[in-house]
Amino acid sequence: MGDDVGGIAVHIAARVAQHAKASEVLASSTVKDLVAGAGLKFVDQGPAELKGLAEPMHLFAAVT
């Protein structure tokens, strides 16, 4: 795509970011699973309907 990015991962990231409040970092369950063992902590935010996806995606807020 030249200098532009695209694809389902970019689409999902944009939709997850739209659900975040100011100063909040949200992650999908996929991201949470990929960083397992890294010492990061997450709080379950429940499922969210993301535009363009057939099923809700579970979201998690990163916490310190």
Shape: globular
Number of strands: 3
Q: What amount of the residues lies in strands?
A: 25-35%
Order of helices and strands: HEHEE
- Continuous helix count: 2
Helix content: 25-40%
The neighbouring-strand order within the major sheet is 1-3-2
Q: For the terminal residues, how far apart are their CA atoms? A: 36 Å
Rounded radius of gyration (Å): 13 Å
Low-confidence blocks of residues: none
Assembly type of the shown chains?
Answer: single chain
Provide the domain count. 1
Biggest sheet descriptor: 3 strands, antiparallel
Overall pLDDT, averaged?
Answer: 93
Structural class: alpha+beta
Describe this structure in words.
This protein has 64 residues and is α+β, with helices and mostly antiparallel strands. The protein has one domain. It has helices at 8-19, 29-34; strands at residues 26-28, 41-48, 57-63. The protein has a three-stranded antiparallel beta sheet.
Task: Summarize, please.
The chain is an alpha+beta fold and 64 residues long.
What are the salient characteristics of this protein?
alpha+beta; 28% helix; 64 residues
